[in-house]
Here is the input.
Amino acid sequence: MLYNEHFNARYVREGDWKLVSLSGDSTWHLYKINQDETELNDLAAQHPEVVSVWPHNGGYGPAHTMFFLNG
Here is the structure.
């Protein structure tokens, strides 16, 4: 599972799924990125079981972990 947060926007990615919350927005948007690389078709309403599990169970990893890249 991959998690990223940048300027209050965040996403969680696992397998073909990508769950996104935009900056200043508490709504989660769900995309099947192997079929929708441009993230135009929000599938959150069709797959509430995915949306309800990831952001609320801590499954997206430690929120305060920081990684610094050299270069």
About this structure: The longest helix spans residues 48-53. The beta strands are 2-6, 9-14, 17-21, 29-32. The radius of gyration is 13 Å. Residues 57-71 have pLDDT under 50 and may be disordered.
